[in-house]
């Protein structure tokens, strides 16, 4: 045995003769930090939930032409801002523009099937003057709401122009008028009784045999009692001119509505035994080109609806 080997100290042994082992103790996390961490988590959750409550539904509106719109443009209904445009991008076919907008939470009921959207632009015509505020201000998106009880949807196809007529009232009296021509009538043309607007034209189509046209009109529920089986309908000429050598030129217009656009008028016989029965939706009448002088003298007493 060498000298170095003989001088190496032997490992210490316990009295029992075994070698002692090291014991590692884990450091405990102080309970002092638990309360701040939990409080921070609760505060974060409350902030997140508040942000989510303040956000309304996101919808997508596809426009053929989104000229005048930009991120930040407003969606306005009845003079109130109900949403804002967030993003704009071309569709995959490059033929239209997809607009992503956020509605206000209290306007989430507008995101239903049947809601119509369009861009408000200046419009001046004989029939209407609208959107003039966009000449000096930003253009915006307007809408016509669908049935609030309808299905919730998130995608819409925008209209190219504002709708000419309001959504159909399922309580209205819907009638059809037969004529050999349409003339200047169009969807939205007024239906007048004693120069008061009581309804409107919904649409017009050719007869099945193409020998004439069928015009569909709606009479407001309140005025439905005015229509009986012997009621007469005629197209209002709008403006009439008469020239006499001694009387000169005279101009006649049934009403402002008739002056601006073609309209339909009707009259009901005043004697109950001559006016016939009240009609229901689906009844059909002939649309005359003009009124008989006797029709204009009829003044029936009719109890209007509520």
Structural notes for this entry:
- By secondary structure, the chain is mostly beta strands.
- It folds into two domains: 100 residues, no CATH class; 125 residues, no CATH class.
- It is built from four helices and 18 strands.
- The strands form four sheets. The chain has a seven-stranded mixed beta sheet with strand order 5-8-2-3-4-1-9, with no helix packed on it. A seven-stranded mixed beta barrel has the order 10-13-12-11-17-14-18. It has a two-stranded antiparallel ribbon with strand order 6-7.
- The longest helix has 21 residues.
- It starts with a helix and ends in an 18-residue tail after the last strand.
């Amino acid at each position: 045995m060498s000298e170095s080997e003989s001088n190496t100290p032997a490992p210490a042994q316990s009295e029992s003769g075994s070698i002692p082992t090291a014991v590692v103790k884990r450091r405990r996390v102080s309970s002092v930090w638990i309360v701040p961490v939990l409080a921070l988590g609760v505060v974060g959750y409350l902030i997140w939930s508040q942000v989510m409550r303040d956000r309304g539904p996101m919808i997508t509106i596809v426009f053929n032409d989104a000229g005048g719109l930009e991120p930040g443009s407003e969606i306005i209904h009845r003079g109130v801002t109900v949403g804002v445009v967030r993003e704009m991008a071309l569709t995959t076919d490059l033929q239209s523009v997809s607009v992503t907008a956020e509605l206000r939470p209290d306007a989430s009921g507008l995101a239903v099937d049947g809601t119509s959207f369009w861009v408000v632009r200046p419009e001046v015509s004989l029939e209407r003057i609208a959107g003039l505020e966009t000449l000096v201000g930003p253009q915006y998106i307007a809408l016509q709401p669908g049935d609030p009880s309808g299905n919730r949807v998130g995608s819409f196809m925008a209209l190219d122009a504002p709708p000419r007529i309001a959504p159909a009232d399922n309580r209205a009296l819907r009638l059809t008028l037969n004529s050999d021509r349409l003339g200047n009538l169009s969807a939205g043309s007024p239906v007048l009784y004693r120069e008061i607007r009581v309804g409107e034209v919904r649409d017009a189509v050719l007869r099945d045999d193409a020998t004439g046209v069928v015009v569909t009109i709606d009479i407001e529920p309140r005025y439905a009692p005015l229509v009986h089986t012997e009621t007469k309908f005629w197209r209002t000429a709008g403006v009439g001119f008469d020239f006499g050598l001694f009387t000169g030129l005279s101009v006649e217009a049934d009403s402002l509505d008739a002056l601006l656009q073609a309209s339909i008028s009707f009259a009901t016989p005043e004697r109950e035994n001559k006016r016939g029965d009240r009609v229901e939706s689906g009844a059909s009448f002939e649309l005359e080109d003009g009124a008989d002088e006797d029709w204009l003298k009829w003044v029936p007493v009719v109890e209007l609806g509520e």
